Amino acid sequence: MKSDNVKKGIERAPHRSLFKAIGYTDSEINRPLIGIANSANQIIPGHVHLDRIVDAVKAGIYMAGGTPIEFSTIGVCDGIAMNHIGMKYSLASRELIADSVEVMAVSHSFDAMVMVPNCDKIVPGMLMAAARLNLPSLFISGGPMLTGENPLDPEGGKIDLITVFESVGSVLSGKMTEEELTRIEDAACPTCGSCAGMFTANSMNCLTEAIGMGLPGNGTIPAVMSARIRLAKNAGMQIMELFNNQITPDKIMTEKAFHNALAVDMALG
Predict the structure, then answer these.
(1) Could you give the residue range(s) of every CATH 3.40.50.2300 domain in the chain?
(2) Residues with Cβ < 8 Å from 44, sequence gap 6 or more?
């Protein structure tokens, strides 16, 4: 195991001592060490619930005989960063995420990785890290938010974040009042999760599934569904299968897989 670099032999007694300072037992230390890149924070709606996803991943890893080790990464909400100088930082954050995952994985000799992203630049940042590390890796995203119900529509039509943007234009053109805009604003994003609609986040999560780096359902199961938690547990168990069989990203993200993902992207529009 790659993790033998930090845990095997007399010379690694200090390393084991540091593991034990955290609370790991000898049994846990002797198992494969599975890094979990958790991009949870309290500013991105698609990431605010990721700690729950990570807990499920950990359970799956433990059930399958590995030791999960969680660490954090940054993330930018493009919706909140847009329309001001903050948007200049969004794309650059992708490289920072890739670098930070690589730093943690190599420094601590993880045997495999589970990536837990959800939104726009975090998904490709972690995909870049997975490709560079070429450790057995699997993705489980946080899932999309549900759509809201239009409070101005007697039939309760569905609305999402785009409806809010459109409503701003309606107010500015005199077709809607500010009070009506507030009602739309309150209803458009009713749950946690990546913004409803085929924007960057949901597109990237669907393509991660299509390219083979996420389990079936990764791109589409809503964030608030119990099926998402079950998928996360399955991801934790499946990463041990990838590790045991040494199935690495270079065996999954092939040229054919990229062509398949591009076809899916074109079909999604």
Answers:
(1) 31-144+195-268
(2) 75, 76, 77, 80, 118, 119
Start-to-end C-alpha separation, the chain? 43
State the amino acid at position 77 in one-letter form. Answer: C
Degrees to nearest 5, angle at CA 74 with 229 and 231: 15
69-90 burial, b at 16+ Cβ within 10 Å, e below that, comes to: bbeebebbbbbebeeeeeeeeb
pLDDT in tens, 74-119: 999 999 999 999 999 999 999 999 999 999 999 999 999 999 999 9
C-beta separation of 194 from 201 below 8 A: yes
Question: How many of the other CB atoms lie within 10 Å of CB of 30?
Answer: 16
pLDDT tens per residue, range 186-240: 999 999 999 998 999 999 999 999 999 999 999 999 999 999 999 999 999 999 9
For domain 31-144+195-268, give the fold.
Rossmann fold (3.40.50)
Burial class of residue 216 in the structure, from the number of CB atoms within 10 Å of its CB (0-12 exposed, 13-18 middle, 19+ buried): exposed
Instruction: Please check whether residue 203 is in contact with residue 262, taking contact to mean a CB–CB distance below 8 angstroms.
Output: no
How far is 241 from 44, CA to CA, in rounded Å?
Answer: 31
Please tell me the distance from the alpha carbon of residue 237 to that of residue 57, in angstroms, as a whole number: 8
> In angstroms, rounded to a whole number, what is the distance separating the alpha carbons of residues 28 and 156?
52
Cβ 39 vs Cβ 116: under 8 Å: yes
Among residues 147, 141, 140, the alpha carbon closest in space to that of 191 is found at 147
